[in-house]
Specification:
Layout (H helix, E strand, L loop, with lengths): L1 H10 L5 H24 L3 E5 L5 E4 L1 H7 L18 H12 L5 E9 L2 E14 L2 E11 L1 H50 L6 H28 L7 E3 L1 H18 L2 E7 L6 E3 L1 H17 L5 E10 L2 E8 L6 H4 L17 H11 L3 E7 L3 E9 L25 H9 L2
Parallel strand pairs: 7-9
Antiparallel strand pairs: 1-2, 1-5, 3-4, 4-5, 6-8, 9-10, 10-12, 11-12
Helix pairs in contact: 5-6, 7-8, 8-10
Pfam families: HATPase_c, HisKA, PAS_4
Keywords: ATP-binding, Kinase, Nucleotide-binding, Phosphoprotein, Transferase, Two-component regulatory system
GO molecular function: ATP binding; phosphorelay sensor kinase activity
Length: about 400
Amino acid sequence: MREFISRAINKSSKMNEAQLRDLIGRIAEEYSLLEAMMDSLSNGVIVLDSFHTAVKTNRAAARILGRTFHESSDKPFWEYIDDEKIAAFISSVIQNEEGETTEEFILSRDSGSRYIEISVLPLVEEHRVRGTIILLEDITQKKRTEINHRRLESLASLTNLAAAVAHEIKNPLAAISIHVQLLRKNFKACDLHINEKAQKHLNVVEEEIDRLNKIVVNFLFAVRPLQVELAPVNINKIINDLHQTFLDEFKKSGVYFSLRLDKTIPIIQGDERLLRQAFMNFLTNAKAAMKTGGALIIYTTCKDDFIEIYISDTGQGISEENLHKIFEPYFSTKSDGTGLGLTMAYKVIKEHNGDIHVDSVVGEGTCFTIYLPIHRHENQLLLENKNEMNDPFDLTEKTKSDKKKRESI
C-alpha cells in the first residue's frame, strides 16, 4: 500500500484530473476496506505513533475498555485510560521498551467484572520501531470456564479423601466422646467430686469434639455425591420459612431482613431438604458479612425457564481476587469459618442443574443470583394458594418494576 502510494505521488505530476480522481478513489477504497477489517475484529486493536498517541482504534477496543478514544490527541494514550493498573502497565512496557508483553486484568463494570488480556508490542516497519500496537481480548468466558473446571477438579479430589476422613477422624472422635462420658459416669459411680477446674476441662473437650465432628460432617456432605430426592418444591415457602426462623436473630444483629417474593413463580422439582440447607448457608454467610448491621433482602422472580433468587446484602463485600474462590472447599476470609458453607450451597444448586452468579463491591455488599430450572414438561403447577405465604413483604408489581428496585440496591 505504501509503495503504491509512493509511486502514485511520484507520477502525480504527470497525471490528468481523471487519473488523479481514480487514484484518490482507489486509495479511499483501500482505506475503507482497512477500516471495515479493523471494526470487524472481535478483539480490540489500538495503534500508537512514536509519540505514544492513538492514530488508529477499532470498535472492539472502545467496547472492551468502556470508552471511546480520540485519535491524534496531544497526550500519551495511557493518560486517557481510567483503570490505573492498565495505564501503568501500558506506560511501563512502552517507555521501558520491554518488547512484546502480555498481562491479564480485571475490569469492574456496572454489569459485573470482566477479565481482559492486554498485549503490548512494538510496531516495526523496515527494521525500525514506528510506534506501538495494543491488542485487547475479553477472556471473561474463558476464565469462568477455567474457574468452574478448577472447582469441579477440587470437589473431585476431595471426594477421593472422604472415605479416609470418615474412618481416620470421625470414628476416633466418637471413641473420645464415649470415653469422656464414661469418665463422668465413673466419677459419679465412685462418688468422686469433680472440681470446677476439671469440670471446665471436660466441658472444653466435649465442645471441641462437637466442633470437630461438625466440621467432619460438613466436609463429608460437601464431597459425597448427593442423593437428590425430587419432589414438588415451593421455593417461596422455603425462603419465607427461613425468614421467620432467622428474623429475630438478624434483628438482634442490627440487620434489616426483608423479602420481595413473586407469588406467580411455579413450583419446581427439587429436594426441599437440600435446598433449604443451601439457602440457610447463604443467609449465614450474609449475616457474617454484616457484623455492624446492614440490610439483607431476598427477591424471587421467574424469567424464561428459570426461577431467579436474588440474595443481596450490604456487608463488607468480596474483593475481585477472592470472588472466584468463594465456592472452593475450605476457602474462607473469616477466622471462625470452615470454608464449606458456600461449597455445600454451590453443590446443591449444581445438583439441581442450576447456577449461581455473584456480584460484589468491597465496602458496599454482595448479591448472589441463584438460577433454578423450571421443568415445564414435568410440572405446570402455579402457586394459587397465596394465603399460605402470609408475607407482608410480597410484591404484586410487574417483574420490570422488581428489576429496577434490585438495580437500585
